[in-house]
UniProtKB/TrEMBL annotation:
Keywords: Amino-acid transport, Membrane, Transmembrane, Transmembrane helix, Transport. One of its GO terms (cellular component) is membrane. Pfam families: AA_permease. It comes from Corynebacterium yonathiae. Coiled coil: none annotated. GO terms for biological process: amino acid transport; transmembrane transport. Its main location: membrane. This is Amino acid permease.
């Protein structure tokens, strides 16, 4: 459920219109490409994670497959990107909550930061239970949306006639040509960011191998039903020309569809769902960032104080750091202090590309060693060709990002962060008397 919930974020409800506006119904091709990449990444993570279950996940895989510097860089870039967006998520949720109760947004922001800090300090089973219900609510909403949308399309709701493909093909499947599809791909390329948290969380489950196998095998179904299903419903019911980036729940394509179906209070319902999505993402990312910091500290790549755990084995000091920095990021969001916040958020926007590239390279380098060590419950398909194909697609997305001013800034910011961290990784290894290019042996 964490894997399922992590892919259903506020971006699905508010940002879907951006890609549709750019590509029209052909945005489905962009989602298929992005979804295919996400599935390949999950398959790679599953292959490595079932043999090397670790809370450091892909950071440790990079250390095993590429070198000490790569493990350091992978872990820190993921941690920094996660921390950067914590403030944006809680700020967004607090804005909605503050308007509900007519209070200043910083009050619900402070309450949420403290509340979710406490939740993360509980036993991991309690955290998992809490996140399960968060994810379940989002899943129920999406399923209800898909059912209502299908009934609308088929004209089976009272007072509605058959729509079929009349809206979907009104201006053709690809109204803006291949350029529109490329722009749509740029808008949705990182829509599935967050699925990698499954590999981190599985290490703390009762049966890591079984948990990860189940999560990986359900990825195709999750992406097909929840994302592609939602986009199909929207493109069948709403002209692409009226959609765009939604800044409020009322502007969400999901709200427009529900209002078309005559659902009372659709905007209010979507506000609640968007807040739950933001809070769920905030909760999961405190979890993921704290585990990554704990792993880095355990490997000597972060201060040793962050190896401390409480009596339930929860990395308390690492969680405290994430909570503290989330509060700092909230303050920076409200203060709008300029270049630092902008740089962090821009770097976070493209850092997923770097994380996924290093996952693919790690899998290429580790496959033979993993096979020699343990039978593989999950195997990357068509090795090594599909892995190389994924890397080629990543390169294509990077080139595409260079053509857009906003995406180009994100790419350059992430590249600068990567370069600084790579140098820091080399220095860290040399200070510890370790060859930066040496790999951590598999045992």
């Amino acid at each position: 459920m964490m894997g399922l919930g992590s892919t259903i974020g506020a971006g699905l409800f508010l940002g879907t219109g951006v890609g549709i506006s750019a590509a029209g119904p052909a945005v489905l091709l962009a989602y298929v490409i992005a979804g295919f990449l996400a599935i390949l990444v999950m398959q790679m993570l599953g292959e490595m994670g079932t043999v090397i279950p670790a809370s450091g996940s892909f950071s440790e895989y990079a250390e095993h497959g590429i070198g000490r510097w790569a493990g350091f860089t992978q872990g820190w870039i993921y941690w920094l990107a996660t921390v950067a967006v914590l403030g944006a998520e809680i700020t967004g949720a607090a804005g909605f909550i503050g308007s509900w109760f007519n209070v200043s947004p910083w009050i619900p922001a402070a309450v949420c930061v403290v509340l979710f800090g406490i939740i993360n300090l509980l036993r991991v089973r309690s955290f998992g239970e809490f996140e399960y219900w968060f994810a379940l609510i989002k899943v129920i909403v999406i399923v209800a949306f898909l059912i209502i949308g299908a009934l609308l399309i088929l004209g089976l709701l009272p007072g509605h006639s058959f729509i079929g493909t009349s809206v979907f093909l009104e201006d053709g499947f690809m109204p803006n040509g291949l350029g529109g599809v490329a722009a749509g791909l740029l808008a949705v390329a990182f829509a599935f960011g967050g699925i990698e948290v499954v590999a981190i969380a599985s290490a703390e489950s009762e049966d890591p191998e079984k948990s990860l196998v189940n999560a990986v095998r359900s990825t195709i179904l999750r992406i097909s039903v929840f994302y592609l299903g939602s986009v199909i419903v929207i493109t069948f019911l709403l002209p692409y020309s009226i959609l765009g980036d939604a800044s409020t729940a009322a502007e969400s394509p999901f709200t427009m569809v529900l209002e078309r179906a005559g659902i009372p209070g659709a905007a209010g319902i979507m506000e609640v769902v968007i807040v739950l999505a933001l809070l769920s993402a905030f909760n999961s990312q405190i979890y993921a960032s704290s585990r990554m910091m704990h792993s880095l500290a355990s490997r000597g790549e972060a201060p040793r104080i962050f190896t401390t755990t409480n009596k339930d084995g929860v990395p308390a000091t690492a969680i405290a750091l994430s909570v503290l920095l989330s509060a700092v990021m909230v303050v920076l969001n409200y203060a709008d202090t300029g270049w630092l916040l902008t740089f962090m958020l821009n770097a976070a926007g493209a850092s997923l590309l770097i994380v996924w590239v290093l996952i693919a390279v790690s899998q290429l380098r580790l496959r033979r060693q993993l096979e020699a060590l343990h039978p593989l419950p999950i195997r990357m398909w068509a090795y090594p060709y599909l892995t190389w194909f994924a890397l080629a697609l990543f390169a294509g997305i990077a080139v595409l990002m260079l053509s857009d001013a906003t995406a180009r800034t994100q790419l350059f910011s992430a590249a600068a962060m990567f370069a600084v961290l790579a140098v820091a990784g080399v220095i860290n290894a040399k200070v510890r008397g370790i060859n930066p290019t040496s790999t951590l042996p598999l045992t």
